[in-house]
Amino acid sequence: MFLGTHTPRLDEKGRLILPAKFRDELAGGVVITKGQERCLYVFPGAEFARIAEQLRATPMTNKAARAYSRVFFASAHDEVPDRQGRVTIPQHLREYAGLDRDLVVIGASTRVEIWDRQAWDTYLAESEEDFAGIEEGVLPGGL
Known about the structure:
- By secondary structure, the chain is α+β, with helices and mostly antiparallel strands.
- The protein is built from five helices and eight strands, in the order ββαββααββαββα.
- The chain has a six-stranded antiparallel beta sheet with strand order 1-7-8-4-3-5, sandwiched between helices.
- The longest helix has 16 residues, at 117-132.
- The two termini are 19 Å apart.
């Protein structure tokens, strides 16, 4: 499970050093793809395969699943981190997420998310009140 918030920087070659606490789980390879809210999702290979199987099981007649699958898979980039735990983020994904130099990398349970630092700060500020106001019954199983 991926947890926590980290603030690495993107180097001049578009590489990100993965947080040390995530490296063991991601050492075998990652898939980086577009996420919602203009962030990037980083999946370990096995988790990406699990999601791909779920999408494959959705009927092709489901318009929303087709649209999601197209963007999700077309933008996907697979890579194995180097010895220093670095991965290269392709230009098209950096542009999509508005990544500059300062980043925020968060653990989001089964995936890692990469955000532009300013975009994350804005998202977090706008989401804090919603988070605090979640009502009983909104989350499956409750808390």
